[in-house]
TrEMBL record:
CDD domains: ABC_PhnC_transporter (cd03256). NCBIfam families: ABC_phnC. PANTHER family: AMINO ACID IMPORT ATP-BINDING PROTEIN, PHOSPHONATES IMPORT ATP-BINDING PROTEIN PHNC. Gene3D superfamilies: P-loop containing nucleotide triphosphate hydrolases. The lineage of its organism: Bacteria, Pseudomonadati, Pseudomonadota, Alphaproteobacteria, Rhodospirillales. It holds the Pfam family ABC_tran. The gene is phnC. This is Phosphonate ABC transporter ATP-binding protein. Keywords: ATP-binding, Cell membrane, Membrane, Nucleotide-binding, Translocase, Transport. GO terms for molecular function: ATP binding.
Length: 273
């Protein structure tokens, strides 16, 4: 059968439908000022978005809300992931397992279980599809083993499959964490400062790996980064936060020096970012 031409309107709808839809969310811890202050954001399937901002601007808190790990304030807006409400009215939905299974998380640290092998850590990505006795004794089938090995191969870590996680360098650990999201078959990856503690070569490799996954698998990514040069090189879109607000959201070529100074203030003027 020949290819069916998509009408322009249908194409637009398909392209524009967001993977992540955040509507006016707010979060206040205790009696402090809001950490997130009426944030709205839509992320389209396949986008690779850099989330930047000074320390304390709210990046981690925003990522944790998108992951469903932290609830918005009671009157603090709502978040939809892939067309399903993830949280609303101060509550993360009860049946969040299925949605969470679509979201892969990569953090700066504490990504892996030290005493487990690289392969087992990677296989933990498949846990949502597996029966685990008492929540820990999991039997992974041959197909999942294959998926995990393939994921390790893609991030260049297959030769380390049998090593303990705590024997790896920081960059290698991050690549295993990324392999775990591939094994999970996540359609969204949220990465919180994945290269913060890495040397430049390892940082480059981790960002390249994420970028390849974004390009090949069309996985949607939101990545918080402190390094502006990496953000601008690897991410097409920049979202910049300051004191719980989004103060810039646009293509990287519009994120000019002037905007960088708006976001980072004197740090940027001193050349520290
Ligand atoms: N669980 C919490 N309880 C109280 N305050 C919190 C909590 N989590 C975050 N905060 C506060 O929220 C603010 C934003 O923190 P967050 O970690 O989101 O910032 P960030 O932009 O990710 O910073 P960094 O770049 O340093 O990681 C900070 O002032 C922090 O102290």
């Amino acid at each position: 059968m020949g290819a069916v031409a998509m009408q322009p309107d249908a194409m637009q709808t398909a392209v524009m439908h967001p993977d992540i839809s955040i509507r006016s969310i707010s979060k206040t811890f205790g009696n402090n000022r809001p950490v997130l202050n009426g944030i709205s954001l839509e992320v389209t399937p396949g986008e690779m978005v850099a989330l930047i901002g000074s320390s304390g601007s709210g990046k981690t808190t925003l990522l944790r809300h998108i992951a469903g790990l932290t609830a918005v304030d009671a009157d603090g807006g709502e978040i939809e992931v892939r067309d399903h409400v993830l949280q609303k009215g101060g509550k993360v939905i009860r049946d969040r397992g299925k949605l969470r299974a679509r979201i892969g998380l990569v953090f700066q640290q504490h990504n892996l279980i030290d005493r487990y092998s690289v392969l087992t850590n990677t296989l933990l990505g498949a846990i949502g599809r597996t029966h685990c006795l008492g929540g820990w004794l999991c039997r992974f089938n041959r197909e999942d083993q294959e998926i995990a090995r393939n994921a390790l191969s893609r991030v260049g870590m297959l030769e380390h499959a049998d090593r303990r996680a705590d024997q790896l360098s920081g960059g290698q650990q991050q690549r295993v964490a990324i392999a775990r999201t591939l094994t999970q078959q996540a359609s969204i990856i949220l990465a919180d400062e994945p290269i913060a503690s890495l040397d430049p070569a390892s940082a480059e490799r981790v960002m390249r790996t994420l970028s390849e996954i974004n390009a090949v698998d069309k996985v949607t990514m939101v990545i918080s980064l402190h390094q502006i040069d990496f953000a601008l090189r690897y991410c097409q879109r920049v979202v910049a936060m300051k004191q719980g607000h989004i103060i810039f959201d646009g293509p990287r070529d519009q994120f000019t020096r002037h905007k960088i100074v708006d976001v980072y203030g004197s740090d940027a003027e001193m050349g520290r970012v």
